[in-house]
Amino acid sequence: MSEAATIPKTNSFHMIRAMAGIGALCGLLIVLTFEGSKPRIERLRKEALQQALFKVLPGISETKTYTFRDGAFHPANDGEENLVYAGYDDTGNLQGIALEASGQGYADVIRILYGYDVENQQIVGFHVLESKETPGLGDKIEKDENFLQNFQALDVSLSGDYQDLKNTIVPVKSGTKSNPWEVDGITGATISSRAIGNILGSSTLQWVPLIYQQKSDFEQDGNE
Questions:
Q1: 160: Cβ–Cβ under 8 A, 6 or more apart, which residues?
Q2: Cβ contacts of 149 within 8 Å, gap of 6 or more
Q3: How far apart are CA 141 and CA 112, in angstroms?
Q4: Which parts of the chain sit beneath pLDDT 50?
Q5: Where are the domains of the chain?
């Protein structure tokens, strides 16, 4: 008997079945791992958001979550959308409203949180919640001190009838900011910094007039 005749033929069906079984098992393990870690991921995300609220709303000691529905802001229930976060001082007076916003950056979607001072009609804080921008370049939107100064008193003044902003927030080239509603960009991170200006411009156009018109919705009992 020849040597070739003694070598068993490979059964391709069994190989494919084994590979399919391994693939299915790996897929199942991935799903189980994701589902198992999901509660922890959500808890950490909520903790990070809570910490960020105190960064973007200076002087607050407590927060309360609201949702916009039926033409007004109401205390939010679990699972609701259109959320905003009111910040109060030790005496229960409203200090400002924090809002989430997102938009396309250079590498992926950038998710931010910013603080709105209702009485002074200014953005007074900014924090990056999620970003995949290029380390050393795009991530300067989180670290560059000159860039972060844009959000200490960024103008979002309203028109006389409080229906629109007097001026939309716009990004400008680094070093050319001349108006209080402009976001001065970052050299070397032009796309990322411009994205922040555009995200804020779009979000404030939508939310700032609504919040100002309905600011009494955020007054706590005893501070009306």
A1: none
A2: none
A3: 11
A4: 1, 7, 222, 224
A5: 9-37, 57-218
